Amino acid sequence: MDLRRGSTATFSHGLAAAYVGFTLAFGGMAVKWADAHFAHRFAAGPVPAKAPSGGWQAVRYDFNLWGRCVVACIITMALVEALVQFVGSSEATLPLLAWHKHAFGCIVLWFFFGPAWSLATAWRRSH
Fold first, then answer.
1. Counted domains in the chain
2. Would you say residue 39 lies in a domain?
3. pLDDT tens digit string along 53-105?
4. Phi-psi region of 57 (alpha: psi -120 to 50; beta: other; left: phi over 0)
5. More confident residue, 126 or 21
6. pLDDT for position 91
7. Sign of the alpha-carbon torsion through 80, 82, 83, 88
8. SS3 helix, strand, coil % of the chain, rounded to 5?
9. Which domain holds residue 46?
């Protein structure tokens, strides 16, 4: 609401949008991971499953994570755009618009260091 009263948007306003986006995209997965590890550590639960570390299963797993990243970034950009529209496009919202670059950069970097890397190593091992 401080933006509506005329204050200038900051990096933290965009970070709040990213927090919401990544929480929605990864929250359920993070809770399941934490529950499994807590149950194993404190309630004699089974050993939690580990993420695949190689092969085509790792490629599939990394594409799944990257897809969640794309969803998180789309949510982030939608929230940033909603903030810009709410405030009205002005110089006060320019720092928010940088978050489109951050989100796109996140998608690209996650792809190269996630599924593309796994794909390259899986393909190399199979040949």
1. 1
2. yes
3. 888 999 999 999 999 999 999 999 999 999 899 888 778 888 898 999 999 99
4. alpha
5. 21
6. 81
7. positive
8. 80, 0, 20
9. 11-126
